[in-house]
Amino acid sequence: MSQSGLRFDLHTDPDTKVFSFALSRYADNLDDMSELFEAFSPVFTSSMRKQFTTQGSYGSGGWKPLSPAYKAWKLKNGLPGVVGTRYGHLKAAMTGGTGYTVEATKSTASYGVGGGPAADYGKHFDRARPVIRIPAHEATAWGKTAQKWMVDQARASGWGRL
Predict the structure, then answer these.
(1) The Cα angle at residue 12 between residues 18 and 116, in degrees rounded to 5
(2) CB-CB contact of 131 with 91 (8 Å)
(3) How far from 28 is each of 3, 20, 31, 104, CA to CA, in Å?
(4) Angle at 60 between CA 36 and CA 102, to 5 degrees
(5) Which of 24-33, 35-44, 63-72, 111-120 has the lowest mean pLDDT?
(6) Which of 27, 42, 46, 140: CA 20 to 30 A from 133?
(7) Confidence of residue 70 (pLDDT cuts 50, 70, 90)
(8) Residue 63, SS3 per DSSP
(9) What is the pTM of this model?
């Protein structure tokens, strides 16, 4: 058995940064990585929760603040006075709530908004306030998830002691 490398690239839509890491052990015979991609879902939603909680500071340096007039209007109308939460569709869809989808195939995966009001608003929102910006230090969480999955797969397949 060779010990070839396995590389993951996370592409965001709308296109933002490519987020990559590599693992070097037990990459042979991985024909179907859909379970791994499913395992990444909690890591993605955790990052998105941090992004919304910090108003974008976590991954993108902070979102453009609301104008004073719009913030006053939101508060007057009983809406949250923070960015990205007028009705909550986008936040819910990006953090694992209503509207969140994972589309995982053997070799690709997509996380986030599945459609509906969050999809339309998300395109508009991301132009001024980048939603999907995952900081480089998050690579550790993605890498640990992938490593655990690969070790579990190797053990289940009888590839020896890991």
Answers:
(1) 180
(2) no
(3) 7, 19, 8, 20
(4) 25
(5) 24-33
(6) 27
(7) very high
(8) coil
(9) 0.73
Q: Which tokens go with 41?
A: 């879902």
Distance CA 137, CA 117 (A): 31
Q: How far apart are CA 44 and CA 49, in angstroms?
A: 9
Sign of the torsion formed by the C-alpha atoms of 5, 140, 10 and 20: negative
Tens-digit pLDDT profile for residues 94-118:
899 988 888 888 888 888 888 788 8
CB atoms within 10 A of CB 3: 9
C-alpha–C-alpha distance, residues 32 and 52, integer Å: 32
Q: Which residues contact 58 (CB under 8 A, 6 or more apart)?
A: 47, 50, 51, 135
Q: Residue ranges of the alpha helices (H) in 3-157?
A: 34-53, 57-60, 68-76, 89-94, 116-128, 139-156
Cβ atoms of residues 47 and 112 within 8 Å: no
Stronger pLDDT, 120 or 30, i.e. the higher one: 120
* Contact (Cβ atoms closer than 8 angstroms) between residue 90 and residue 113: yes
The label of the residue with tokens 């007057």 reads 76
